[in-house]
Design brief:
Layout (H helix, E strand, L loop, with lengths): L1 H21 L1 H6 L22 E4 L20 H13 L4 E7 L4 E7 L6 E11 L3 E10 L8 H16 L5
Antiparallel strand pairs: 1-5, 2-3, 3-4, 4-5
Helix pairs in contact: 3-4
Length: 169
């Protein structure tokens, strides 16, 4: 019985060693690209697995939204600048693409230990009277569940934006 536990422990140690020697990014790339690509919020369909989160203004997204982002009392350029400051305060995040025509940005953020990749797409929306809002979709590359990581990210980001900018509603 003791030898079975010893064998299991040795095999587990070997697997963990290989994981960190080869590198998490190379291991996860076996499951496809880390960046899951752009999304069209107007036609977005949510996943059937609980490993994504969506913040979307009313009547903007086809999919069910987890959060309604606030209407900010600033032009979209100021919202983008505030978001840039917020992103700069995040760890393990990189800008993948900026599309000024579509007013979108796409980011890749990795978890601390295992380096699981999440793709986050932000769409900035100019509203009348100098107001603006945004839509954010965050989704994991791997797993059936993300243990609430994407949802927590959107809550944290929207909370920070509320502190940085005046909110109209």
């Amino acid at each position: 019985m003791l030898s079975i536990f010893a064998i299991v422990a040795v095999v587990a140690a070997a697997v963990v060693s290989v994981f960190f020697i080869v590198g998490p990014e190379r291991i996860w790339s076996l499951f496809g690209p880390a960046d899951l690509g752009p999304v069209a919020f107007e036609t977005l369909e949510r996943r059937t697995t609980p490993n994504d989160a969506l913040a979307c203004p009313p009547n903007f997204c086809k999919a069910r939204s987890d959060f309604t982002p606030p209407l900010f009392g600033v032009e979209v350029a100021a919202l983008r600048a505030a978001m840039a400051n917020l992103i700069a305060s995040e760890q393990r995040i990189s800008l993948i693409e900026t599309n000024d025509t579509a007013s979108t940005e796409r980011y890749l953020q990795r978890s601390a230990l295992m380096q699981f990749p999440d793709t986050i797409v932000v769409r900035y929306i100019q509203k009348p009277e100098g107001h603006s809002t945004l839509a954010i979709y965050s989704r994991s590359q791997l797993g059936e569940s993300d243990l609430g990581v994407n949802r927590a990210r959107l809550e944290r980001w929207l909370g920070k934006l509320r502190q940085l900018l005046p909110v109209v509603n």
